[in-house]
Give the backbone structure.
Amino acid sequence: MGEPLKVWLGLWVVASAGLGAPAATSAFEGKPIVDIQFSAPQPLDSKDLARVQPLKKGQPLRAEDISNAIDGLFATGRFADIVVEAEASGSGVVIRFVTENVKFVGNVSVTGKLMDSPNRGQAFQALNLSLGAVFHEEDVTHALESLQRLLESNGLYEAQVTPTVTPDDVNQLISIIFRINQGKRAKYEMPIVAGENDLSDDVVARVTGWRIPIIHWWRKVTAGRTRKGLQSLLAKYQGQDHLTARVELDKLDYDSEHRRVRPNLTVTAGPEVKIKAVETKVSKRVLKRYVPVFQERSIDNDLLVEGRRNLRDYFQSQGYYDADVDFRFQPATDGIQIIEYVISRGQRFKLAHVSVAGNKYFDTDSIRERMFTAPASFNVRHGRYSEAFLRKDQETISALYRENGFRDVKVNPVIDRQYQGKPGRIAVTFQIEEGPQWIVDHLEIRGVSQENLAELTSQLASSAGQPFSDATLGLDRTTALNYYYDRGFPAATFTASWQLTQTPHHVDVVYVISEGDSQYVRQVLLSGLKTTRSSLIDKYITLKSGDPLSPNKEADIQRRFYDLGIFARVDAATENPDGDTRYKNVLYSFDEANRYTFSLGFGAQLARFGTPSTTSLASPAGTTGFSPSVSFTATRLNFLGLGHTVSLRGVYSSIEKLGSLSYLQPRFRNVDGRNITYTLLYDSSLDVRTFASRREEGSIQLSQRFSKSLNGLFQFSYRRVSVSQVVIPELLIPQLVQPARIGMLSATFIHDRRDNPADSHRGTYTTVNFGAADKVFGSQRGFGRVLVRNATYYSLTKNIVLARQTQFGVIAPFSPPAGLTDQESVPLPERFFGGGSDSLRAFPYNQAGPRDIGAPTNAGGPSYQPTGFPLGGDALFFNNIELRFPLIGNNIRGVFFHDMGNVYSSIGHFSLRFHQNDLKDFDYGVHAVGFGIRYQTPIGPVRGDLAYSINPPSFVGFKGTPTQLLQCNPNLPPASSPSFCQGVPQGISHFQFFFSIGQTF
């Protein structure tokens, strides 16, 4: 039918849902619907459309159906406007929905050179655009204004921001890119300070830190620097006892011609307030800590009352259990307000005994481990006691019982102020009246479909015969709702009720669950990817079209993307979350991290090193030295868009030169916890006194996480090891100093059950390493290697830890080359070396074990005098015990330790005997005791250890040079040899000191 012949029988423009159809529909009432059309791509899933739109082809048209269709379509949240047109077609009618679709926020990104102040993350947060939210045109304007304010607060007044808006009509998404050209950053100039300021300009500039001292150059403006300057100026006034002072930034005046920013400040100094303690001396540090006036910078009665309570608790924790604290205002004079805390400490007590009585359901240890109150001990001289601690312990014990069904429990602390008849000694007994235990007789669950009932019931804490408590009801509520959320029922509700049964203290519990409508994944939409390949992303998207819409799974996928380490930001959201649709799009927006990272580090060591010397043999036990070091790391993330990582690392110091290139392939064959690493390594070390070692290695390692606590490493390495700077030139067996190629297959298993790897208080840590070098792997030497380490940690009290570590290792050579014994066939760099801060503190670094005792002529090789230099061994045994305890405050801890063990020439010579048989005997157990200090830092404890070696080895050394050593013949009588050929008795010092970072084990 041509356009002029069309007859428009009705036109309805509906501005919002809920309006009924106009009266013109009477002309179409009852006519059959020939077709239903949409003017634009219809955004709803076909199943959702069929549910919300009741009009069907072939059915008679009714005004009520049109109104319901309009209401249903608007309720989906996907339509901004709906126009309904009706057109006659033969004896029927064609219905056309002319719609304007709602747009949603899709990928939002910030580009440009933004390294810091602000960084890209801060810029993105300033935009305040939420993924999946409804998009409005004014959102871009508001985001621009907010971003511009952020840039200006950081001195970037010349920055230009250009937004690019890209619509995705198919998915109703709007992608926005904000491109920033930041320009040059402005600098500060002398601020204008109004109000009650009595500080000179120089003092203000120095305190704020906005001007560099001495040279007086103004720094560049950043929001953090501005904020820090205001805080420092405020602290200056507070340090002068102006506790209610205010420092406000009124504005930042920008001079575009000179690119300068002048801060305008207003200072309200307020009265000078002095808070002091009378009748009892209290340091200002303690007052600042416990009187909240200093933190809140306000004086009111509530804060002063809180300070009184805090000070009373403080003195009670120091043993003054009868401490009485009050405060009073002195009349203000000369603008000075004095507040006095009147403190009467009373007699000092010692909490000698803490006990628990009346407990039957829980054993005493289970209760005591939850309590703050504690008797006097080594690290708590007067015990831990206060009214606040008593209240907290009462609440803790009561909560423990109530959670297990004892709703009527009562806990009363009983205090004996003359324990065992001794004045000044206090005992506290927590008297528990457990009362009856409430029990669930029957659990009824209503509203759950039959297919979910059995599975859900098995996960609930409440069941017939179990203790009844409010905590259990709350736990079941969380469990049930999570169960439904995981299965796509976001509107599920849970209510619980209970009533008494005929049996006293027994109840029937009823859970009423409304499942609501299920929701499903329509499709998963990704945005923001530039370098990363879609094949990598697809491996991690476990939600597929048609799956239940689970927020927990959405978050788990997001977490796994973050674990890759290649994304700076991963946003996850459900598009149109509040719309009445059952099939929803899941959105993931990515912001890829900077692909290149570089780091440069500087450090130094001060210790007794084993650096080899080719000019003197006088100190076989090493010499104290200083070794500065430089480290460099370059990393390329997301190599080839596969999520792989390439790393280049270098270390240069006087005792080590190391370079490595590694390639990490995570999730090998798409298995969680399975990674493969390829490495090329060059290492030149001078940490053994006898020789310098060099290693050139290529390796491939497969790591696998079997469980939360068990990991495995499987490695094949092929390396060339060689020695140089041998301090006994041309006199050692030639094969020992020749380069050797070692091909080794090894496996390491790590079982970690520690509570805190950086500073463990309980748990175990075990590693087992097996390795084999053989000609089938291209190795020139054959040997097997086993190294086992086990550490355990025991909390004797809340603050005292007993830690133990044992290491045992064996090298078993086989098929030695012709002319070599089994022991001689193992290259020097492959042997065990030990001693030092991390193994055996009875020795300097790598000084344990067998030493050079010379070689007489009848040995079949060159003859030379003994030098006493370490040679390493084929077996080791170390045992370390540490008692760790608080020493000063919360950050400084002390350690008493005992180390014993040694490196042995072979497993057949293993012995733990205490005494050295002679100057050629090194196969015995060496013991050391000592004391250490640990200072807690954010990167781990910094430690210093002083060890006393009880039975260090003695040996015969040589005081001359390598050239003089060649002139000596041990077979000649002493009278015929030069004086420098005489052996010199030497030994390891009894005292050793170590300084390093991290716990010993």
Summary: The longest helix spans residues 137-153. The mean pLDDT is 87. The longest strand covers residues 623-639. Residues 600-997 form a domain with the Porin fold (CATH 2.40.160.50).
